[in-house]
Amino acid sequence: MLSRPELILKLIVEQYLSDGTPVSSKFISEQGGLQVSSATVRNTMVQLEQMGLIRSPHTSAGRVPTTQGIRLFIDKMLQLEAVPQRWLNEIQQTLLPQLPPSVLIQRAGQLLANLTGLVSLLSPPKAGGRVIRQAELVRLAMDKLLLVVIDAEGDVLHRVLAQNADIPQQTLSRSLCVLNAALCGQCWPDAIGRLALMARTEGGDTERLLLDVMAQLSLDEMQQNQPLVYGQHHLLQEAEHQPDAALQQVVQLLEQPACLLQILAPVLQDQCTKLILGRESGITELHNVSIIALRYQAEPHRVLALLGPSRMHYAHLIPLVEAVGLQLSKHLNQP
C-alpha cells in the first residue's frame, strides 16, 4: 500500500513520462481515488520537492520528477507490462538457434533498435576471443581465390582474394599447407602472429598470398572486437528536428562505444537487468539519457543495452530487453 506522498509521486512520474510536461496540483487532485484537495496536494508536493524527488522547472506551476524521483518510482512502484505477442513472434523468428553467434548478436541489435526507435549497444561479437577450427583457400578463377575461415563457434569468414597474376597450383597448395599449420587450433590474434612469421620463410608468390590472407584476418579481428551500435540514425533524426547540445554529445559518445561498455561492465556482474538513469552514469553526455542493460552470457562476457531519453517507457521496454536477452542466452549458452 502506497502512502499519499508515494501515490502523488507515482502520478507525477507517470504523467511526466507520458507527455513530458510539468504536472500541476490541480491535475493530481482530479485523479480518481486520491480524494484530497488541491491544497493538500500542493503541501505534499512541497514535501516531495524538499526530499529532492521532484522539482519546479523555471517559473512553471507544475512539477517534474528528478532522477532520484524516477529511481524511487522504478524501484518501488513500476509495474512491468507483458511483451506484446507480435514482438515475441519477431524475436523468435529473427533470433534463430541455427544462426552463427555473430549473426545472432547482430540481428538482436538491429531488432531492438527497429522495435523501439532507440539505440541498441551490444558487446563485440567475439567478446571472448575465438579459436580457428579450419581454413581453406578455394580457387574461383586463375587469379582469384576464396578464403574461408571457420572458428570454433561455427562462424564463417568469407573473403575473395584477387591477385595481380595467375596463381600456380603449387603456390596454392603450399599456401594452404602453411595456413593450416599456422591457424588451426590457435586463438585469432596468435594465429595472425604465427602466420606472419611463417610467411617470411616462404618468399615469392606464396609469401605474397599469405600476407594477403593475414591482412584479411587482421581486418576481421579488428571488426569483430568493435562493439555493435544500431539505431544511431534515430538520434540524428531527433537532433535535426530538435537541435540539442545534449543529443549531439550522445551521438559523439556513441562513436566510441567501447567506453560505454567499460562503464557498464562493473554493474553487469550478474544476470539481473540494470537501469542507469541519466546522472547516475556519472557521464555528463548522458545526463538526459537512460540505459537499460543486461548481461546475457557469462563466458564470454556479453551484454546488451538500450539507450533512450529519460522519459523512456520503462514498463514497456524493460521486458522487451529481457525477452531479447533470454533468447540470446538460450541459443548461445546451449552445448
From TrEMBL:
Record-linked Gene3D superfamilies: 3.30.450.40, Heat-inducible transcription repressor hrca homolog, domain 3 (3.30.390.60), Winged helix-like DNA-binding domain superfamily/Winged helix DNA-binding domain (1.10.10.10)
Q: What this chain does, per the record?
A: Negative regulator of class I heat shock genes (grpE-dnaK-dnaJ and groELS operons). Prevents heat-shock induction of these operons.
Q: Which terms are listed as keywords in the entry?
A: Repressor, Stress response, Transcription, Transcription regulation
Q: What is this protein called?
A: Heat-inducible transcription repressor HrcA
A Pfam family = HrcA
Family recorded in the similarity comment? Belongs to the HrcA family.
UniProt domain Heat-inducible transcription repressor HrcA C-terminal: residue ranges: 104-318
Q: Does the keyword Transcription apply?
A: yes
> What InterPro entries does this protein's entry cite?
GAF-like_dom_sf, HrcA, HrcA_C, WH-like_DNA-bd_sf, WH_DNA-bd_sf, WHTH_transcript_rep_HrcA_IDD
Gene designation per UniProt:
hrcA
SUPFAM superfamilies found in the cross-reference section: GAF domain-like, Winged helix' DNA-binding domain
